[in-house]
Amino acid sequence: MYAIVNIAGQQFKVAKDQHLFVHRLQGDEGATVEFDNVLLVENEGKFTVGTPAVNGAKVSAKIVSHLKGDKVIIFHKKRRKGYKKKNGHRQFFTKIQIENISI
């Protein structure tokens, strides 16, 4: 059984006991969150497609940890002008574990 669910503006294919990195979610570590914007559910070869979401379908997950991603370096330069600018960015992520998919 798997489902396609919209989490924080991104679509993910999730299955039970799967670990997933998503954009930072509100909540403490160990808390349970539910996502009700389920777009598709597959159960033993039977597909349920929502228009746009499946009615009554929910995906519950547990927040494992909050962490930061790898550093991305942004470098701007204009040749022969002496213009250089260097920036860095680290995205905040939340690691979740899918506990249950209910229809």
Walkthrough of the structure:
A hairpin with a 2-residue loop joins strand 5 and strand 6 (46-49). The chain has one domain. The chain is an all-beta fold. The protein contains no helices and ten strands.
Précis, in short:
Pfam families: Ribosomal_L21p. Helices cover 0% and strands 65% of the residues.
What is the overall number of helices?
0
The domain tally reads 1
Shape designation: elongated
Strand content: over 45%
By secondary-structure content and strand pairing, the structural class works out as: mainly beta
Widest sheet, order of strands: 2-1-5-6
Function: This protein binds to 23S rRNA in the presence of protein L20.
GO biological process, one term: translation
GO cellular component, one term: ribonucleoprotein complex
GO molecular function: rRNA binding; structural constituent of ribosome
